[in-house]
Amino acid sequence: MEPEIKLGKTFEGVVVKSAMKDTATVQVERYVKHPKYKKFMRLSKKFLVHDVGNVAQIGEKVTIRETRPISKRKRFVLVSRDTQVKSEE
Question: Which ranges constitute the DSSP H helices of the chain?
């Protein structure tokens, strides 16, 4: 019996910043139902993502996956770019 490979959590979000070397900031939004008032709230959180080659551009929708710690705050890697931004020239 071979050991099971554990993959981390995956999220979909929008790139909000990509000015750092091999790093992008991705904002992930999720809807949560309030336990008492039953109203749905939109919560968002920003994650630092390892982006090899700086391929992610601001405004793109991307998929990220949890991985081993890469730096002090970076624990996610860029899996795929779902929608690409059209460059204005």
Answer: none
